[in-house]
Amino acid sequence: MPVPQHVFDPPFNIVRSSHVVLDVVDLNKSVEFYDNIIGLHVEDRDDTTAYLRGSEEHQHHSVVLRKAEQSAAARLGFKVGSEADLDKAGSWFAEHGVLYSFVDRPFQGRTLHVTDPFGFRLEFYATMDKRPHLLRRYERYKGCHPQRLDHFNVFAAETQDTIDFYARLGFRLTEYAEEDGDGGRIAAAWMHRKGNVHDFAITNGKGPRLHHFAYWVPGPLNIIHLCDVMASRGLALERGPGRHGISNAFFLYVRDPDGHRIELYCSDYQTMDHDHEPLRWSLRDPRRQTLWGAPAPRSWFEQGSPFPGQEVREPVFVADVVIAD
Amino acid sequence: MPVPQHVFDPPFNIVRSSHVVLDVVDLNKSVEFYDNIIGLHVEDRDDTTAYLRGSEEHQHHSVVLRKAEQSAAARLGFKVGSEADLDKAGSWFAEHGVLYSFVDRPFQGRTLHVTDPFGFRLEFYATMDKRPHLLRRYERYKGCHPQRLDHFNVFAAETQDTIDFYARLGFRLTEYAEEDGDGGRIAAAWMHRKGNVHDFAITNGKGPRLHHFAYWVPGPLNIIHLCDVMASRGLALERGPGRHGISNAFFLYVRDPDGHRIELYCSDYQTMDHDHEPLRWSLRDPRRQTLWGAPAPRSWFEQGSPFPGQEVREPVFVADVVIAD
Amino acid sequence: MPVPQHVFDPPFNIVRSSHVVLDVVDLNKSVEFYDNIIGLHVEDRDDTTAYLRGSEEHQHHSVVLRKAEQSAAARLGFKVGSEADLDKAGSWFAEHGVLYSFVDRPFQGRTLHVTDPFGFRLEFYATMDKRPHLLRRYERYKGCHPQRLDHFNVFAAETQDTIDFYARLGFRLTEYAEEDGDGGRIAAAWMHRKGNVHDFAITNGKGPRLHHFAYWVPGPLNIIHLCDVMASRGLALERGPGRHGISNAFFLYVRDPDGHRIELYCSDYQTMDHDHEPLRWSLRDPRRQTLWGAPAPRSWFEQGSPFPGQEVREPVFVADVVIAD
Amino acid sequence: MPVPQHVFDPPFNIVRSSHVVLDVVDLNKSVEFYDNIIGLHVEDRDDTTAYLRGSEEHQHHSVVLRKAEQSAAARLGFKVGSEADLDKAGSWFAEHGVLYSFVDRPFQGRTLHVTDPFGFRLEFYATMDKRPHLLRRYERYKGCHPQRLDHFNVFAAETQDTIDFYARLGFRLTEYAEEDGDGGRIAAAWMHRKGNVHDFAITNGKGPRLHHFAYWVPGPLNIIHLCDVMASRGLALERGPGRHGISNAFFLYVRDPDGHRIELYCSDYQTMDHDHEPLRWSLRDPRRQTLWGAPAPRSWFEQGSPFPGQEVREPVFVADVVIAD
């Protein structure tokens, strides 16, 4: 119900969502999926870890796949504005009772690890090894031609508190879904740092879990081609293609070999104006989830990737309508 | 089970499916739908009848909307090669116990009316008033930019007999769906005259009824735009967008204000080779209906437009799997 | 000036243009171009010959590349309706003073070779080895996703006579470009057998030479992707992308390593109606060549592939406007 | 030659390029062009002025058309972060010898007018009347579906000085074209505030003049449709469609009835990272202007819109290669 106000002067400067670290049980199979089906580019790999990126990304990686005993969403990575921001971040987390550590991650500069109060495992960095972008390497295009990682979407058990926490870090609300009436509770929030609809979306549900991470693609035909490619390989789509009311996105959701969910999407809008106002959706408005009317499958509402070592909790409240986008 | 052989020398020459005549209860509402939503072009209209066509069609109309008390599929129209073919057609139908009449239809030359032995009401003509095509009138493009009527798809109660009947008229099988095993029955057939996948498709079910008629559009993005336009107008989609295994079509199904179903589709293939072989699909292969896996709604399997004065019969057999594409 | 009437009952039945045989000086380089850049599929190859096809083609090949000392357009291939048509073709050519021979070509049935009176080297066949189409093998899509060979376009020194000759074989005029005024001469003709704008186009110029052969692709974005892929490989485009007035085609022209010209195109229209009337263009109407106004380069008007052993002659007349599409 | 360093803490906060004010001699004709051809939406108009916007813009207008005796680029509009930024801006300009005034503009809050030292007439504002965006009003889409104003591109007579001036205001260099060798001079610069390739581009040439302003569209097919629509209306395209090496943009340039140039474009990339490095192009690399190789017409290099009352000067230097993108 209380919509967070935008904090124009946050304690440290998060530039944008940057990369996801995934634990996968069969590294070869996962690399095959992200490389040859989705169309990301392998930048480095060894027996235990693979690093991939989209075609416009100068950064070394936006997906890290790590061989593991159990599938999990290991870390959500954010880029900050400078090394000083890392130190400010550490101090701020410490002041707020969150343990932090600085770690060495391959191809990244100094990296700050924290687990937020709700169980989301994060990493922050200011610099990463750079590579020339691949935009003019059209001969290497494949899959759905993913250009850049765009955002994360998580299930949170304590939705309002989680939204408030990230609002204090400067994440700005662009759209939200809410129960109707006095005391109607917020059931989902889309928040950004970089100037489009979101870097981080928070959805009420059993959490902490990663619902999905999303890559931006050039247009709907790239997504349709991915549908055809996956069908040709005998792989199922989970949801879509379709159009969200939320964010106006043309979307497709697919699952990787471990069940991690990836969204391919395009056609949202800009939000960098200082007086940009958040858009409210009633939880009872079905156009929020799908402008076209096709229902999402049960799996899409219920399944997500846990974070290692983080117990999944029931949500504080169950909304009067099932939500998620 | 018995797949009809192609008759290279049929009793008269049907060139292609040409137009559909629909009975509608609210003419204004129907014209608004086909003109401003779908994007056909109104060529003529008065208080009782409207004539529309696609952008590449030189013929005066490919949809005729007639104000009526009851919604119905009034006629399926086919173009024949010459006036002589009309006379040959009349003779042939008479020989086979089918009554025929020649009637005057506005904007059409001499027109032959028959109701086939299964209750499908047909009309044949050799010439129709011509109009310059609208391909280079891009400023008039709207909706999904429908270019041409492509085919009809009907529910037939006597599937095998209906297929055999149209095979004798020269319709050629391109794809079909069949029960597995010895004695497996054909449950759906796609048959053409003009050199692509179909002019006429026959599906097992309560019949005679029109399942849908289809317009060919330039590409998938035109269909996606129609989804968005319909959603913007508060109109529901029935099925799709998606990809059929059958015919490789990228498809969308929507219903007009009377519930008549229209398919918008593209990306099938050519079939004019004399040695083109029909493609068999097992009824148990789900890729037939949808390459991507999204199920069709119940309405799509069950509902269709009756023909005026034709009693709808239960099918001769119920296939061991529900079918239709 | 005299526009040929359509011959509905030609001496033998040509179904459509089918394949081109090209002499190339560096087979590996040519295969690389057609396979990895254009996106055709190699069906067979050895040290001297490679066979490729488009994704919807059931036929074994639509391009044959033959290692040779000199680049040339070796043969234009057409499919006929039956073995009997081959014999009728042989007889007809003999009656009209054209030598013929039956030859064995790999993967083809009995094949008739003739050189027409104007020097165009042709081959006719009724059957070719078949392969399953690749439409539902989207994981193999590459380049511009060419689906099928669509047509040939040649420079003819004796334009009117060449048009008349092919009209007698049943090729039907769909569009033509003509000088204005009484006695205005036809400078280019688009003629079909299969029911779209053309199988064979004849352009006034130094001939006999092949101007280009064309593949149909799913849509404009496939062509735009090919532009980007070729640029990424450092390869130049010759003309386009653009829109022809003629045939409404969205087009791109590129040259293979031997300079053979290939057109990638989409979005023409159907022409199988018996009363379809040819569309006349004044040679002075620039929209004929390009609806958008960008001029074609000099090479496009002047260069073409000679046929082996056929002397290239100056055209009988020079039109009052340079033509070609 | 000296590449400006990014000023992270500029004297006032410019959020992005926002709108252009154009003087036009025939208001009806201009509105017709931007509304029915390009596809912008008229938000308000009277006898002397019309206000239009793109489909995703919440702001009241991004193009203002004013009836005038002479065609001109009246003002380039930028949005700042707050009212306080307007005051800071006034002070800063005054300190640097630039006169300023606050004016009332319809539908805008307090508006600051300045003419920069090079003759570019600017206006800054913090708030503008808001309207609901039109993204989910697909039934209103027309033309090329322009979504938002993206950037301005100007001819500057004093290129290096102009670049340095805007760098001090916080515009950040993303790409630039430079003569080769020691002392090679910068001939064009692309600079941003909002996080993509540019808000403001500066090109060496007779200045001050506006080269073009650009709208972002959803994808290449929208641009191709505009080509077809303009051709259908008998309107010429100036340049494109094509692909710039610079910014990776798929582009089209057209001229409005007064000759003002508008670019329709898509497919650039994000640049908000604090360590994003500018990309250098040699002036001798033709891929900068066009990845595909088609030359730009002379008009595109030479013509631009003057600013009222600002004398157009010859450039300080003439680059050793003609430039502009």
Automatic annotation (TrEMBL), chains A, B, C, D:
Which cofactors does this gene product need?
Fe(2+)
EC number(s) per entry = 1.13.11.15
Where in the numbering of this chain does the VOC domain appear? 16-127, 148-267
Top enzyme class, one word, equals oxidoreductase
Q: Which GO terms describe its molecular function?
A: 3,4-dihydroxyphenylacetate 2,3-dioxygenase activity
Does the keyword section mention Iron?
yes
UniProt cross-references to InterPro entries, sorted A to Z = DHPA_dOase_Mn/Fe, Glyas_Bleomycin-R_OHBP_Dase, Glyas_Fos-R_dOase_dom, GlyoxalaseI/FosfomycinResist, VOC_core, Xdiol_ring_cleave_dOase_1/2
Q: Can you tell me which family this protein belongs to?
A: Belongs to the extradiol ring-cleavage dioxygenase family.
Recorded protein name is 3,4-dihydroxyphenylacetate 2,3-dioxygenase
